[in-house]
Amino acid sequence: MKRNPSTIGAPQLASDPDRATANAAPASAAADGAKAPERRPPPAGHGHPHGMAAPAERPIEAFFAEVGDDPLTCAFRGRQAVHPFVGLQPVPEDEVEGTWATLCASPRCTTSVAYVHVPFCLSHCLFCGFYQNAWRPEHGPLYVDSLITQMRRGRASPMQAEGPIRALYFGGGTPTLLSGPDLARLIDAARTYLPLAPDCEITVEGQVHAFGLDKARAAFDAGANRLSLGVQTFDDHVRRSMGRHCSGREVVATLEGLLRADQAAIVIDLIFGLPGQDATIWQQDLRQAVALGLDGVDLYALKAVRNAPLARTVDNGRMPPPATQPLGDFYGVGSEYMRNARWDPVSCTHWRGTTRERNLYNLLIKSGADCVAVGAGAGGSVSGADAGFSYRNLPSVEDYRERVDRGDPVVAGLMRQSPHRRLFDAIKGELERGRLNTTHAAMRLGSDGGPDWQGLVEPLLAQWQQAGLVTRDGDWMELTLAGRFWQVQLTLNLLQWLNQCLAKHQT
Question: Which of 46, 68, 96, 304 is the least crowded, having the fewest Cβ atoms under 10 Å away?
């Protein structure tokens, strides 16, 4: 679930992305989180809402948090539904082809990942705002053929062929809907045609439904070393109301079988704030996840984004509204539970229970790694000689397959990243992990020719400290529990303030 919801239109409900959440329009995210890649990077097509026009200038107070008794629940009004992408500008349509050709002719020269998008779902989950295509079994072989062809032809491109790829993410959609043979040959092709590092993390995202041990073994034998499965909750009543296809007991049995196989890191995501979910159910979900001995767990809040049918279902009276308890309270309970279980916080939403779990793709994509994008609707990013770019492949499966068959480029559009992307990426990557080295950030700002960090940023950080969101320890700013809950909002506020001030400083 790595997506980039629009801010246009009435909000609907969806969950946070873990997924490469980097990529179904993941261009350098992905979906906080989109696991997810998260779970994805933003689409780089012409008309993307970010960076299209300079927003009205705002005073620093507009980026302050509210000061109150409980920053977990009152620091900001509402939560951002996507990871922050600041300073993107569309490449003019008549320049896309030439710019893309230049990028493809140049090897990647920075930390890199790859994302392969499988944009099919068995059904439209009520909480998801990123549904694209209904699944039919006959879709699998033809689509996998196209993915493999795109990767095979890409070997001639230095952008794909040169430079080790440290993490590979098969996201969607639901890649685990593919048959065992199709999933295996897709993974095998990626290992053949992409320059994967020897220790590359290879993640397959999916659902428990229709993902038995035979299909899992096919994925493991082909080289997958990490599974990221959307569980959301183990509670049968909540699962049924959300349209999940398996009972909680079936989910547990499948996860136990995968863990016994001992072939890969097994990671799940849980969502808090679902309709019908109360504090007791949330505690039971946490207890079950820890008791299973999983390698990693994501804890995501239900968020308002477009295109999710849950809001309509609630409005029509066919389902109770989402949990009335503040989402920050759920997050606080979850964080405390994981801490007491001695799970390591890898990011503000992800914990690991064993050393097998690395969460590389999500950490790297949110730190500005280059991303090779494969598949319809997949988004990627690449650093050019004098600028960074985000891009998106054609979203239509039919158009994508036709382009691949003809041997034509599948990129649909390009976005030029901010000239300050290195500074912004460093801030995003560090805050994703709950801290920021302000001394290093100040040095980067100075090297970008920006104004003095002390006068520009420290007043904002001091206000956040007053609001209970951060603490200071020498060179480091650390997010508190409340700060970790509001991390995406804090990151967005800091980047927008910096972007506004840098633009003004350079005019």
Answer: 68
Residue the block writes with tokens 């890409």: 154
In this structure, the number of other CB atoms found within 10 A of the CB of residue 100 comes to 19
Strands 112-118 and 370-374: parallel
Instruction: List, in sequence order, every beta strand (DSSP E) within 70-224.
Output: 89-90, 112-118, 120-121, 133-134, 165-172, 196-206
- What pLDDT band is residue 94 in, cutting at 50, 70 and 90? very high
Which candidate, 307, 273, 379, places its Cα nearest to that of 7? Answer: 307
Separation CA 235–CA 247 (nearest Å):
8
Work out the burial of residue 305: count CB atoms within 10 Å of its CB; fewer than 13 is exposed, 13-18 middle, 19 or more buried.
buried
**470 touches 479 (CB < 8 A):** yes
The predicted pLDDT at position 467 comes to 98
Q: What token pair was written down for 288?
A: 């079950």
Residues 6+ apart with CB under 8 A from 330: 272, 273, 279, 282, 301, 323
What mean pLDDT is predicted for residues 20-48?
Answer: 36
Residue 462 main-chain phi, psi, to 5 deg = -65, -40
Strand partners, 201: 167
SS3 89: strand
Phi and psi, residue 270, nearest 5°: -115, 145
The three state secondary structure string of 263-300 is CCEEEEEEEECCCCCCHHHHHHHHHHHHHHCCCEEEEE
* pLDDT greater than 90 at residue 393: yes
Q: What is the pTM of this model?
A: 0.89
- DSSP summary character for residue 180: H
Q: Name the nearest CA neighbour of 362 among 223, 269, 272, 263.
A: 269
Are the C-beta atoms of 37 and 169 separated by less than 8 Å? yes
Return the CATH architecture of domain 226-262+265-303+313-355: 2-Layer Sandwich (3.30)
> Could you state, in order of their start, the residue ranges of all structural domains in the chain?
52-84+420-505, 226-262+265-303+313-355
Cα distances (Å, whole numbers) of residue 7 to 11, 44, 67, 340: 8, 16, 26, 37
* pLDDT cut 90: percent of the chain above it: 71
Give the pLDDT score at 309. 66
Q: Are 82 and 481 in contact (CB under 8 A)?
A: no
